[in-house]
Amino acid sequence: MIGFFEHQYLSFKKNHVRNLIALAKADGHLHSTEEEMLYKIGAKYGLKDRQIATLIQSEKEVKLKVPEGHDQKMNQLYDLVIMVYADGVVEESEIAFCEELMEQFGFKKEIVLWLIENFEKGNPPTPEAWNSLKTEAANKFVT
Predict the structure, then answer these.
(1) C-beta neighbour count of 69 within 10 angstroms
(2) What is the span of the domain harbouring residue 63?
(3) 120-143 tens-digit pLDDT
């Protein structure tokens, strides 16, 4: 049996991956490279393959869950941008999906293109650069 806080943390991780799945399906289908990235990100958060598969195969409509706190929101955005680049094509539907989320996240929508530019064709910034970007985002894009 898992305790309350373990359950809360598991729920947080699943919600994080559900948001990424919603983005991956924003263009109407899930590419195999996007699916691979979902498994990779899910594993990074300690989810098992079967848990990720269940989330991907779920027919339930995804209700987006906005993370709490600037760092958690930025970490969700980090993974969202990674997903945008996962299939090698930055689609307008994916950008629009991310921009729509920004109001809920408390950010200006311009943060999406700014982050995409900072990921230089899918290459994420170093951890040090990411920390700088998080600080800069707090100053430039928080509404």
Answers:
(1) 8
(2) 4-140
(3) 777 889 999 999 999 999 999 999
